[in-house]
Amino acid sequence: MSDYFQSIAKVEFEGKDTRNPLAFKYYNPKQKVLEKTIEDHLRMAVCYWHTFNWPGNDPFGGQTFLRPWMDHQDAIHQATDKMENAFSFFDKLDIPYFCFHDVDIAPEGNNFNETELIQKKIVDLISKKLETSKVKLLWGTANLFSHRRYMAGAATNPNPEIFQYAAAQVKMCIENTHYLGGQNYVLWGGREGYETILNTNMKQEFDQLGRFLSLVAEHKHKIGFKGNLLIEPKPHEPTKHQYDFDSANVFAFLQKYGLEKEFKLNIEVNHAILAKHSFEHEIAYALANDIFGSIDINRGDYLVGWDTDQFPNNTEELLLPFYYLFKNQGLGSGGLNMDAKIRRQSIDPEDLFYAHIGAMDTCARTLLAVERMINDGSYEDFLQKRYENWTHDKELMSSTSLEGIYEKVKSENINPQPQSGRQEYLENLLNSFIE
User: Fold this and answer.
1) DSSP state letter for 310
2) Which of 18, 143, 189, 275 has the most CB atoms around it within 10 Å of its CB?
3) pTM of the prediction?
4) Could you please report the per-residue DSSP string of 9-67?
5) Please, which pLDDT band fits residue 20 given cuts at 50, 70 and 90?
6) Cα–Cα–Cα angle for 342, 101, 230, nearest 5°?
């Protein structure tokens, strides 16, 4: 087996003044923040696909990464070597979690039966690795978008045999996730949408997708899987019209098919931006509707209108969404999956570590700022004062009528005046908590 990371020592916390690029500046896993350790709050995860599978290609150029496991002619040998190097990376980074698609960990066979046997072999090897490693499985998911069979969708495909194949693939993957102790299971409808309405029966496809999700929820309970089922919203790309466009769109869909109690959301930063929202909007919406589940933490390039999947490096952009999370429920059984890839020119083993260290430091630095923000209390005080008059007018939300409000405005000569929203003050206030 290859040892791609042999020259790199285990990454340690050395503090913000360190000049060692392979050490943490802010991510001190055992440091207590808001009554829990940083590690327990952030629940950071490495994604298997971008980190170990992506070859560095883009729409205009081919492979730039020459990982040793990518050279094997034998697919099983490749998967095994990749797994050994992945766990070496997990241990040296001291990461608590990882995530995978089924096809990330093992290749597909010539038919479903063969694919299932290959999956079982690699899953059993991963299970043995988990017995001696600190890392745990945050979530698993089935790739229902890469293979050519899914070019017209998986659950929404006009061919019912493809619907059935996708369902079998999800059954296999959710059971493997359960077997490996996964804490969630994610569904991302990468091809659940359409390119043109010319060849699309939208109602038929909606009903198919609703049925598919119902089947998954039923099977979760049948096998005793206790983790959350998560849906990941994304607008456009790869299809022009995605059915899982954003958090509100997914929530409405779940309500239509009576599934809002069965599924929560896995929200990705750059997907929020592509939907013309802010990340904090998507987080606040999910929390307000009790459907928050987990996060794919990354960022996009504001000069490029597609999903660049870059590692997070901006504390200011994360402060408000992290505040919403950690002021409320925290991440729960979810986590911060680094669904990000290094740039295609970053071809050395160290580059993978630099990227993950920077992301983990950024998230830890943001959490420390959130602690200062919560302990200070001035932001929360502002919000409470802005809405405090609603505590004196509770009947407006329950017992009063439109006619009653009309009479009250006339009899009490209500003549309200606008008050400043103080946006600039609040922007300055939030910046003051970042050190």
Assistant:
1) B
2) 189
3) 0.96
4) PPPEE--TT---TTEESS--TT-EETTEEHHHHH-EEEEHIIIII--S-BTTB------
5) very high
6) 100
CA distance 21 to 136: 26
Rounded to whole angstroms, the Cα distance separating 4 from 86 reads: 10
Instruction: Output the CA angle 262-247-384, nearest 5 degrees.
Output: 100
CA distance 78 to 57: 19
Assigned token pair, 309: 């999947």
SS3 content of the chain, % helix, strand, coil (to 5): 50, 10, 40
d(CA 392, CA 401): 17
| Enzyme catalytic residues | 101, 104
pLDDT in tens, 169-217: 999 999 999 999 999 999 999 999 999 999 999 999 999 999 999 999 9
User: Hey, how many other C-beta atoms are within 10 angstroms of the C-beta on 385?
Assistant: 9
| Residue 345, pLDDT above cutoff 90 | yes
Give me 430's structure tokens.
Answer: 């939030």
226: number of Cβ within 10 Å: 9
